[in-house]
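Hi R.,

Quick one: here's the Non-homologous end joining protein Ku sequence you asked about.
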Amino acid sequence: MAPRAQWKGFLKFGEVSCAVALYTAVSTSERISFHTLNRETGNRVRREFVDSETGKPVERDDQVKGYEINKDDYIILEPDEVAAAVPESDKILHVTAFLACSDIDDVYFDRPYYLAPSAAAGEEAFALIREGMRKQKVAAIAQTVIFRRLRTFMIRAHGKGLIATTLNFDYEVRPVDEAFEDVPDIKIKGEMLDLAKHIIATKKGAFDASAFDDRYEAALTELVKAKVEGKPIPVRKPTKVTDVTDLMEALRESAGLRNGGKSKRATTKSGSARGKTAKSNPRTPSRRERKAS
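And here's the predicted structure, written out as tokens:
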């Protein structure tokens, strides 16, 4: 069954346009989900909005948006006022510029979507836009209203389609100086830097998403299975972390040069190492697979 489109409209640059649809590229639907229950009765509980002063429930029709201008002093925004203020959607992804993907700091990346043609009549124009960007090795910057907000997208060629990634607004990204202001300016050189470069070189590989496990999800799966089958609950073994007191010695040990030994070459290439990881840490089964078992 084809996935449900999150948005449908037109991708347009210059006088070229084509009908397109956005599909969610990342989903959490396969994760284990829980309900909140009453411990005593085992019944599900429901959330309820109550007045902070009277403690009485507030019905949905009596709930309105409020903006605090002073402590406990609000202005009320009626639903029709909010609806009138948000930008209207013309259902068009307007391409405003083309630039290299590397020109955009990935700290601005928000959420990826698959972008595909939604009508046969626009498939040729879609292919033209995709191949043009692929040949020029550029991404398109486009804007449209989606989910009642004007969003900026970075669009790039991906296989037979396009990837459209929403971008965070500048005001949403915290200044980097705030995070790094206390980091000292330390210069690393000589043998210490050479050892670090050697360790990095021996561990080079290619990214393979299937080789990485969601350990939290896997642990929950084991826990639920144990509870259902009445078996002992698995106990997580604590991870041993050794404090590094001698950085140079730790680097030499990591590089296989401890006690003056020769450098140890990796016994397998990165691809084989990934294969071992995948076998020793099998991926978390999907919800469909768990139901089937």
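The first helix runs from residue 79 to 85.

Cheers,
M.
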